[in-house]
Write a structure and sequence with these properties.
Blueprint (H helix, E strand, L loop, with lengths): L1 E2 L1 H11 L10 E2 L8 E10 L4 E6 L11 E2 L2 E3 L7 H13 L9 E7 L3 E9 L15 E5 H9 L9 H25 L12
Parallel strand pairs: 3-8
Antiparallel strand pairs: 1-2, 3-4, 3-6, 4-5, 4-9, 7-8
């Protein structure tokens, strides 16, 4: 159900009374819930400056042959989108990241589908394609992927560049905050993880 705000304004104008005294007209919503829900995971290894990618061979036809981030459909038995993202990352790459360690970056949706995009900051050293996966994952240089996708390379899904740019900006902000924190309090240890 959705409150029809246009009706509220008309009633308010006619009655010349504050909105909170008006009767609420409720109409059925014209927006249907998305029929299919997906997750996508931007898995980044900050020590090796790598990102996990996949070349699509299934799913929406406009994505076939394009390079994007791993992910998949949210199953009925997934308690949340974060649980689905964690499961997909384990199934596709053998990388285990608990749902509570994933960072929800954004959500995109329309009447047909919704897509929750998560970031996993993790060690990708052991990431490898899992047996039986039709779309094998592969590791790539984060800087190189960012450059290629920003040049409107047709091999990449269109918003790959925007998502990596947002991630890069957040990383730069975190590095600057860490360096300011260290300069202002030199006794403190670095909040950044040390290279293995």
């Amino acid at each position: 159900m959705q409150i029809n705000t246009a009706c509220l304004r008309v009633v308010n104008t006619i009655l010349h009374t504050p909105l909170h005294y008006c009767v609420l007209f409720i109409t059925p919503s014209t927006m249907k819930a998305p029929t299919v829900r997906f997750v996508s995971i931007i898995a980044v290894d900050p020590f090796r400056d790598e990102v996990l990618l996949v070349k699509k061979t299934k799913g929406p036809k406009h994505l076939h042959g394009k390079i994007t981030f791993p992910g998949g459909k949210i199953e009925e038995d997934d308690p949340s989108a974060a649980h689905a993202a964690s499961r997909e990352l384990l199934e596709e790459a053998g990388v285990e990241v608990p749902p509570f360690d994933l960072i929800h970056l954004t959500k995109r949706s329309n009447q047909e589908f919704s897509l929750d995009i998560f970031v996993a900051i993790t060690n990708l050293n052991d990431a490898e394609p899992q047996a039986g996966e039709e779309e094998p994952v592969f590791k790539a240089s984060l800087a190189e992927t960012r450059l290629k996708s920003s040049q409107k390379n047709p091999d990449y899904v269109e918003d790959t560049s925007d998502l990596l740019e947002a991630l890069y900006t957040v990383r730069q902000i975190n590095r600057r905050l860490a360096s300011v924190s260290l300069r202002s309090n030199p006794q403190k240890e670095s909040p950044l993880p040390q290279r293995p």
